[in-house]
Design a protein that fits this description.
CATH architecture of the largest domain: 3-Layer(aba) Sandwich
CATH topology of the largest domain: D-Maltodextrin-Binding Protein, domain 2
Order of helices and strands: HEHEHEHEEEHEHEHEEHHHHEHHH
Distance between the termini: 45 Å
Radius of gyration: 21 Å
CATH superfamily of the largest domain: Periplasmic binding protein-like II
Helix content: 40-55%
Length: about 325
């Protein structure tokens, strides 16, 4: 009888351990970006349990990456190039969903005296010190027929873009909403945007592989919550825009404008993109990052190693 009791206790302890390992909190970091708002909308409408998923907002993607590298996060909203950068450092991020595709949302804003991309020569360009900033700048310079030696790079985190531009510390800045709208009101003009390199700037959500292995249900819950928030945004935009405006401290009109350059894929579109186009995008960006010495040239991996499509396929 005593042996039977011990067995029962051991089974109970084992079950408790198993349950706990399946209920670890997913800590997801993002910067302020309209493409990430559906998950915050999900939280606002009661579709995201903060005991299961904790959202941590940072002032810039640089800060998100730093927190991820310090293992303070096990999930994050980042651009594909930033995910490749983390992979090159030895992390095991898996893309579990595509948040948005930039189709004009990321921009190069310049002073009025800069008339063409060639006029950037000798000018000070503010850019965030991230893989995305470096990648976008590289693509702009390629289009201009210039290289990094032809310009003066001024490293700036996104929360410094507005002040540096209006105070004349830079001649141009690579930025996005809500800074974009504010700078346009101050006389800045868009000289180049992400629609010119469509499909190359993609925001995704990643989760570390070891967390996924132990907490598949939590990851599935996160992805389902995302699509709850996205559905609310698409079916009740006025209510959603008001939530975003209050959360980000901007006007509803500014919120509306911020979505004009973004494509937010549905669940079905996610599945299609993650099994086709996303692999091509990863391969292209990896090639460019290597050519520009932004990651180790000897770093090799298969694009599908970064993608886990299971959670968008199954509700």
């Amino acid at each position: 009888m005593r042996i039977f009791s011990y067995i029962i206790i051991l089974i109970f302890i084992s079950l408790m351990y198993s349950c706990n390992s399946q209920n670890e909190t997913l800590k997801v970091g993002t910067n302020v970006w309209p493409g990430y708002e559906p998950i915050y909308i999900a939280r606002e409408i009661g579709k995201l349990n903060q005991d299961k998923v904790k959202l941590v907002e940072f002032g810039s993607s640089s800060q998100v990456i730093r927190a991820y590298r310090k293992n303070l996060l096990n999930g994050a909203g980042l651009t594909v190039d930033e995910v490749i950068f983390l992979k090159s450092l030895g992390f095991d991020p898996k893309i579990v969903l595509i948040a948005d595709i930039s189709n004009g949302a990321d921009v190069l804003i310049v002073k009025p005296y800069i008339k063409s991309l060639k006029d950037l020569k000798g000018k000070k360009i503010g850019v965030e010190n991230t893989a995305l900033g470096a990648f976008f700048l590289t693509r702009i310079l390629e289009k201009a027929g210039l290289n990094k030696k032809d310009i003066i790079i001024v490293p700036l985190e996104v929360n410094q873009h507005y002040k540096a531009f209006i105070e004349g510390k830079v001649d141009a800045v690579i930025t996005f909403e809500a800074v974009k709208t504010r700078l346009l009101k101050k006389g800045g003009k868009i000289l180049f945007d992400s629609s010119k390199i469509y499909g190359e700037i993609v925001d995704v959500f990643i989760v570390e592989e070891d967390f996924i292995d132990k907490n598949k249900n939590v990851v599935k819950y996160f992805v389902n919550s995302w699509f709850e928030g996205l559905n609310f945004l698409k079916t009740r935009p006025e209510n959603a825009f008001e939530m975003v405006a209050q959360r980000e401290g901007i006007s509803i009109e500014e919120v509306k404008k911020s979505y004009e350059g973004l494509i937010l894929p549905s669940r079905e579109e996610n599945v299609k993109l993650m099994t086709t186009k996303l692999k091509e995008t990863i391969a292209l960006i990896t090639k460019i990052l290597k050519e520009r010495n932004l990651i180790d040239k000897n770093f090799n991996f298969k694009p599908e190693e970064l993608i886990d499509v299971r959670f968008v396929k199954e509700k």
